[in-house]
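Moderator note: this is an archived Q&A kept for reference. The question asked for a predicted structure of one protein chain; the sequence and the answer are reproduced below.
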Amino acid sequence: MTYLVFDIVILQIEELKAALSNKEYQIITECSVSNFSEVPHIPPLPNQYSSMELNDATVDIVPEVANGVASGTTIVEASVVLKICVSINLVELSIYTGVTRDASLATVQVYCLFY
């Protein structure tokens, strides 16, 4: 027997804001460029799993023993599909000069994001 379990998680975020100094922004962008240049290791989509790859999710169900005799063993393959939906009303990134954030360099806003 094969069972598919579908879970849906919905995250709703009203505002996501970040404020960075120009130095912090520079460090994050350098790290991001380095990470994007690496070779990606993307796992296969859930519908591409074979039964061999589902061995971690295979569950053995052993019924209770009645009068010292086991009535049998059933092996069940289970696969969990998790869908995550993220809705963000406002994303804002502000960049300032210096650690004390004296002067604003830029502010970027994006409205109504949905993934």
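Archived answer notes: The chain has a mean pLDDT of 77.
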